[in-house]
Amino acid sequence: MMDWTDRHCRFFHRLISRRAWLYTEMVTTGALLHGDVARHLDHDPFEHPVALQIGGCEASELAKAARLGQRWGYQEINLNCGCPSERVQKGAFGACLMADPTLVADGIKAMQDSVELPISVKHRIGLDHDESPDMVTEFVGQIYDVGCRMFIVHARNAWLKGLSPKQNREVPPLRYAVVHRLKQAFPDAQFVLNGGLHSLADIERHTPGLDGAMVGRAAYHNPWTLSGWDAWLDQTGRLAGVSGPVASSKPAPSLDRDAVELAMVGYMTEQQRSAGVHWYSMARHILGLRHGMPGARLWRQVWSDHRLKHLSPTEVHALAQQALRRHDPVVHDA
Ligand SMILES: Cc1cc2nc3c(=O)[nH]c(=O)nc-3n(C[C@H](O)[C@H](O)[C@H](O)COP(=O)(O)O)c2cc1C
After folding, report:
1. CATH classification of 7-236, choosing from 1.10.300.10, 3.90.226.10, 3.20.20.70, 3.30.420.40?
2. Structure confidence at residue 233 (pLDDT)
3. What is the pLDDT of residues 101-149, one digit of tens each?
4. What does each C-alpha distance from 37 to 32, 65, 309 come to in angstroms?
5. What are the beta bridge partners of residue 180?
6. In principle, which of 125, 133, 158, 306 could form an S-S bond with 84, CB 3.0–4.6 Å?
């Protein structure tokens, strides 16, 4: 998720779920082909499996970007056809690509011909106020015809005019039935449901018949929600990992919250030492770790206190643990 997630966030999420498939935020072909590739693509193999999400529309550029993704060790390339922001529309990619399935199919084919990795598409179920399923069926059909078999569907329309990106994640109604119908129409393709899923209970309720679920905001705000996924995936034998369609086969040592926090202290210390990344810019990702637990608010205040920036992660951790123990046991804050 652009501006929210990054490699440090993925490292953190990977400590909680070993099997969920993780996705990068959208990286544009322009940034990859003309920018600092290492800054965009460097990551720790511990994060694997990770899909690189690309934003772009021109086939040869998409192919080059996909090759970079493969060289950098990603496990899947995903094309963004769901972002409605005006900036992205000006670049003629993101959600507005849904109006040009032939162009998308060309781009997908170019990427497929260039790399060994699976190529997937993330898209909406329609544009603006057109709620007929015809457009998305045609869109998926053309991409299916060039061999793509993995579709991650944010189950609401994108309104290209008049809504901010934030509103575009809330205002157009969720219509999960459209995704179920797509699965019926293309049964040998994988369909991953996205939008408004908050918990394993939501996933169990809405994904039978589908191949997986992708969780965005809930995973960021309440990352501990990932903690039940590995056991669920093992138990159900489902292909799907939340945040992605294919579960990895990594063993799943289950860490508790304290162990995850401690592992992040080690990670932040090492990143600060070796790459000069300040712990404060990484700690923002862990602030939801104790969401809903007693003491969460005080604990969070310590990890987000800019006045502590001169301390080491180990010292901040000690203060955060003190704050946790100081909590008023009657108030269960979120
Ligand atoms: C801050 C923010 C940034 C996002 N950036 C991306 C992005 O880079 N690529 C993408 O496919 N979706 C992006 N999304 C959309 C989410 O992936 C997801 O489709 C949407 O939030 C609906 O799922 P949710 O209800 O589980 O959050 C972003 C969402 C948020 C809140």
Report:
1. 3.20.20.70
2. 85
3. 999 999 999 999 999 999 999 999 999 999 999 999 999 999 999 999 9
4. 5, 10, 29
5. none
6. 158
pLDDT of residue 334: 43
pLDDT on residue 330: 52
> Could you say which of 57, 83, 96, 148 is catalytic?
83
- The residues spanned by each domain of the chain are 7-236, 257-325
Supply the residue whose CA is at minimum distance from atom 30 of ligand 1: 1
pLDDT tens, 193-219? 999 999 999 999 999 999 999 999 999
Does the domain spanning 257-325 belong to CATH 1.20.120?
yes
Question: How far, in Å, is the centroid of ligand 1 from the Cα of 216?
Answer: 6
Residue of the nearest CA to atom 29 in ligand 1?
1
Whole-angstrom Cα distance, residue 302 to residue 322? 10
- Answer yes or no: 83 catalytic: yes
- The model carries a pTM of 0.94
Residue 329, burial from CB neighbour count under 10 angstroms (0-12, 13-18, 19+): exposed
Looking from the CA of residue 196, the nearest atom of ligand 1 is 25
Closest CA to ligand 1's atom 28 = 1
List, for residues 40-92, the tens digit of each pLDDT value: 999 999 999 999 999 999 999 999 999 999 999 999 999 999 999 988 888 88
| pLDDT average, residue stretch 242-253 | 49
Closest ligand 1 atom to Cα of 78: 11
DSSP classification of residue 237: T
- List Cβ neighbours of 185 (8 Å cut-off, separation of 6 or more): 137, 140, 141
- Ligand 1 centroid to Cα of residue 82, in Å, is 9
Helix (H, G, I), strand (E, B) or coil at 151: strand
Question: Would the pLDDT of 241 be above 50?
Answer: no
Helix 134-145, helix 176-185: angle, nearest 10: 40
